[in-house]
Amino acid sequence: MRSFSEYNPIVIAVWFFSVTGIAMFCNYPWLMAISLAGAVTFFIMRNGLSHGKTHIFFWVLFLILALANPLISHNGKTVLFVMNHNPVTLEATLYGINSAAMIIGVLYLLRSFTQIMTSEKLLYITGALSPKLSLVLSMAMRFVPLFSRQSAKINAAQTAMGLYKDDNIIDDIRGKSRIFSVMVTWALENGIITADSMETKGFGTGRRSQMKRFRFRASDVTFLLCDLVLLSITAAAVGTHSLSFEFYPSISFDSPDMLGTAGLAAYALLILMPMILETVVNHKWKYLRSAV
User: Fold this and answer.
1) For residues 112 and 43, what is the distance between their CA atoms, to the nearest angstrom?
2) Which residue of 55, 96, 161, 170 is most buried, as measured by CB atoms within 10 A?
3) pTM above 0.90, yes or no
4) Does pLDDT of 199 surpass 80?
């Protein structure tokens, strides 16, 4: 049995697009709560209590987003209080909290996405769609760390030569501008050299191959089918307005009907699928270790 990160990259990508897509295009509060709780739990399950700065940044951002909306938007009928002659309404406050929950939940999911979907997995997916896109993506991903390291080298060389060492903003700007100018020239030359090298090696003339092969196993098919079924139920509930919630001009909503309840349950199960899988894998691994 494999963990979620070892599944086929297409399956992993479809799951991430499913949960983030529903969260981004639906403002039903219970769905946002499920999305945020699931995203945070999934991130903590994978990383433990590390990444404290990430949590602090996300929750500070949550507070800023939740507080910003009622201060900027004054729509809504229920006035809580007046600040500087501007009404702060209940509807705008709840809408701000709901929007903040959506954004932070999606950010947590994208953070997990960047951890699981390595460059090799992304190239596997984009290579199947477009080899040229895969080439551009691979060169861009390789170029970012190269650019950073080369910039540090040039900065160190300028410091060793005694250039732009005065502690004032004018000297800093001149030094950074010189480094940027050098880096642009270096990047253009490096790109031309890479293109010539790839052409010399015969890129695009033969059959493409991959460093690692990702097989599509039965468990991948099962996970993908479950994903699509749960996504369809949730999308049907959202699309037929079984999960409708209006913030303006006043809070109004209908209790979810049978399809809406099924949509909520389907989305909760959808976002829990990797966590259920990880839990089963961990328990099985511990059982096998105890049996040795």
Assistant:
1) 6
2) 96
3) no
4) no
